[in-house]
Amino acid sequence: MTVTDATNPTRRSRTIARVAAVQALFQCEQSGDTAETVISQFIRHRRVSSTALFEDGHIPDADLKLFQEIVLGVTRRQDDIDTKLSGVLPEQWPLPRLDPVLRALLRGAVFELIATDTPDRIIINEYLDVAHGFFSGDEPKMVNGILDTLSRSGNDGNT
């Protein structure tokens, strides 16, 4: 996945934070490690010099505050987030059936929709970009539809 936006380094650092948060949430689910443990590992082992390559699994220039906020927020509010997601997922695609990376991505996005003051349209666009980086099939369309539905349903986020 290539994340470049030379005209807006802040956007790039926030996008990298979101990608890293999806990876960290995936790691938490797969390994059973706590959010704090995974965050520590990411900061120690993946955040190296700004010359490190994102494509090599590093998170140079990531907005660490946002990264930590998403990972901790999702793990602390996962039951609420999963309830919201389950309410909008197609019946044939219950949450446990989703690809674990897709599940992590949706959880991160839903957390931001319900718990931050970032406008919904920015969150949806950012996570749609992240989805395109991880998936080449119909998953980005699914992400867009789910997040748009949640945004329109009055999710306690900002429209």
Structural summary, described in words:
The protein contains seven helices and no strands. The chain is an all-alpha fold and 159 residues long. The longest helix has 23 residues, at 9-31. The two termini are 28 Å apart. Residues 1-9 and 51-56 have low confidence and may be disordered.
Give the helix/strand layout.
Blueprint: H1 9-31, H2 35-46, H3 64-76, H4 78-88, H5 100-115, H6 120-134, H7 139-152
Helix pairs in contact: 1-2, 1-3, 1-5, 2-3, 3-5, 4-5, 5-6, 5-7, 6-7
N to C succession of SSEs: HHHHHHH
Please, how many helices? 7
Query: Roughly what percent helix?
Result: 55-70%
- Poorly predicted regions are 1-9, 51-56
**Structural category:** mainly alpha
The CATH class: Mainly Alpha
The CATH architecture category equals: Orthogonal Bundle
* Number of discrete domains: 1
Key descriptive features of the protein:
single chain; 159 residues; mainly alpha; N-utilizing Substance Protein B Homolog, Chain A; 0% strand; disordered N terminus
